[in-house]
Amino acid sequence: MNLTLRTDAITTTAAIAVVAAITLTKGDVLFIGHWYYESVFLLTFIPSALIKTKPLFISGAVLAAGLTFGIYIQANWAPSATNDLLGLGHIFSLPGAFIGLLITGIISRFSKQNKPVLAFTTGFLGFGIGFLANQTVLCSTVLACGVLLGT
Q1: For 3-30, b where at least 16 C-beta lie within 10 A, e where not — what string?
Q2: Judging by beta carbons within 10 Å of its beta carbon (0-12, 13-18, 19+), is residue 92 exposed, middle or buried?
Q3: Quick check: 127 and 99 in contact, CB under 8 A?
């Protein structure tokens, strides 16, 4: 199978379709707006494509972004007074995610390894670790994150 940017574009489109289907049928439980979900996936795809990362790097990053949405949507499925602004935690954690994504994207571009699994893992970890690092700072300073941990 020939892995190209087209493979990553299909993965991104599928992720947008899945999240759009969930939010359109069940409602926007983060109370941000439907445009936000698609924007995160596109803002994951576009910079990674511009720095010409290896194939499947973007797919890994998109999966990590989808996982963060899944956690936030699950935590806010039955909103209460303590987590009605939980969506802001996702928004304010994205700068860390994109910094991690760009750092690992540059590493991926100049890496001599050409294994798709390595590129996928690098994209997933770049977005995920950046998001979690920023989330940790937010949760320890300005955001109550107990609902994300199930407590």
Answers
A1: eeeebbeebbeebbeebeebbeeeebbb
A2: middle
A3: no
Q: Which two tokens stand for residue 79?
A: 């909103």
Give residue 69's identity as a one-letter amino acid code: F
Contact 119, 81 (CB under 8 A): no
Residue 32 is part of which domain span? 3-148
Burial classification of residue 151, based on how many CB atoms lie within 10 Å of its CB (0-12 exposed, 13-18 middle, 19 or more buried)? exposed
- Per DSSP, 29 falls in state T
pTM of the model: 0.90
Domain count within the chain? 1
Q: CA 114 to CA 14: how far, in whole Å?
A: 25
Q: Which two tokens stand for residue 140?
A: 């320890």
Q: What tens digit of pLDDT does each residue of 101-132 get? A: 999 999 988 888 888 899 999 999 999 999 99
Pick out the chain residues at pLDDT < 70: 1-2, 78-84, 149-151
